[in-house]
User: What shape does this take?
Amino acid sequence: MTDTDSAAATVPRWRVAGDWFDTCKCNVPCPCSFAQPPTFGDCDGVLVWHIREGRYGDVVLDGLNVLMLGAFAGNVWGEHSDAYGAVFIDERADTGQRDALEMIFGGRAGSWPAAFVEVAGMEMRGMEYAPIEFRIDDDLGSWSTSVPGRVEARAEALTGPTTPEGARVQTTNLPGCETGPGQVATWGRSVVDRADAYGFRWGREGQSSKHITFDWSGPD
Assistant: This one.
């Protein structure tokens, strides 16, 4: 048995489901979600996961958050370079929850995160436990997150002259869905997108954002 097989054998059954969104450098709609090169040839942004329901073996993960800053050049689903990231894990998590989140989101517990980590191939600049604020409207009218003093991202659902009042601009079967197959994306536009951590520094508004559900289970 290899070291990888041995590690996989120790991973319990797990499942996490919830909300993911990003705010990024690209124009609306972000081409990365369509498996195309980013608008300006490279992309950087905020990515956040909010677990509505989650268990890792006997460890309950409900309500916890993980946030990442990421950057890359080229098509993240194809040839790309200069891929970097930094991760913030919810400081409310206890030791067991922290271990579980690191296993899942680090790609070591299988399922979609493992596939995405392999595709993205990001070099990690850092990881820390921090307060992560997360909010999303029940009607998906807006969504926001922050790590106080380090990261702030807020977006409003995309609308336009032919969008019915209260309706959402949504996509299914995205060819580059960041949370994996079978999820629904709701498009938005950032009203705040700021970062100042681990060498990631930007401040902008009006660029692409999307909310996508996620539902993963493993270790398969």
In short: Residues 1-6 have pLDDT under 50 and may be disordered.
